[in-house]
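Let us begin with a simple case.
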Amino acid sequence: MFEDDTLVEPGQEWRELAACAGREDDLFFPANEAEKAFVNTAKAVCAGCPVQAECLAYAIETGQTEGIWGGMTSTERRTERRRWVAASRRAS
């Protein structure tokens, strides 16, 4: 997924360690997230990833709206982002 080093920004070295590195993007960016087989396969890869937390944090912090990131679909990340934003506001 992140095999092109030009996609790795400073501080994003975790991408090189991702379980999805070198896999087809179609697995993590299915045409229809309602197709459970694709989503479950991608989530299974994420479940065993050593940098799952970093991936999910990146997706939430940068507002990624498509694909499976850190084991979550775009819908799941929107919910998680709302929680994250609310917690950040309470901490301020």
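The second case is a distinct protein. As before, the sequence precedes its structure tokens.
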Amino acid sequence: MNKEFTIYTRWLALALRQQGFRIIRTEVNEFHPQFDTYVFENCEDLQIAISQLTKRKH
């Protein structure tokens, strides 16, 4: 498992922050420079939270 996980959507990054996950850093999105990406420490809890949040959204 990679040590870092990049999130490309702001709503998901903010929802993860509200659940207590810490953003390590932000970077400019290489494909869409007008947007940022959000880098989190990758762990099993993060992956579970991402799955739950995206299921609720869709």
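The beta strands are 4-7, 23-28, 36-41. The chain has one domain: 4-57.
Keep these points in mind for the review questions at the end of the chapter.
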